[in-house]
Amino acid sequence: MTGQTRKNCVIVGAGEGVSQAVAKRFGKAGYRVGLISRSVSNLETLVADLRAIGVDAYWAAANAGNALELSGAMGSLIGEMGACDVLIYNAAVLRPGKPLDIATDQIATEFEVNVLGAHRAASIVAPSMIERGRGAILFTGGGLSLEPFPEWTSLALGKAALRNLAISLFKDLSPKGVHVAVLAICGIVEKDGPFDPELIAEEYWRVATNPKGVADREVIFQPAGTDPFYNDPDRVHAAVSLLPKG
Q: Does the pLDDT value for residue 1 go beyond 70?
């Protein structure tokens, strides 16, 4: 196992956009970065791009909803890099479906990725963090956890449960020196817009390295002037929605 003179960040659900920007942000600060996703070709490209800018990057392929694959991938990265200092869980199944149209079995299958994988990943890294008295576990949430819309039933269920898991973990682990947070990205991630991946990555960095205690157990990322109805752009459900203020 590599020595712990440098810190390590593991990102589950790696891809272009938020996770790629987060990997660059932590990598440029000197962290080793380990990436996990299902696609080997995607991982190879991401790692090559990171190494090209001087980031010490590694990868392991796994479906976040598969217990054996995820445990194996995380074990492989930790064995190669060293203990995880920051875990970022960014995996989710983005499949639309109304509550009475979507099959119960589909919800259960997607819940494996949207929630259970997050619990599994946290369970793997938390003991070492507790032992060292430091670390951060960050989950990517969303506005659907605060105000669900029927077109996204399964994802909304997952994000709501993920929010609950994050806050429960925060209460349990914060006294032990481990910060846990859920970051709700309440908009469409686009370069050069209010939800630019680099802006979001900066918030992940801040929360992981300089959290404000209980105030940062949940971060609602919705810049002023952005559309809180991004999950319902035609305002179909405006009369029955109570949107969070952020």
A: no
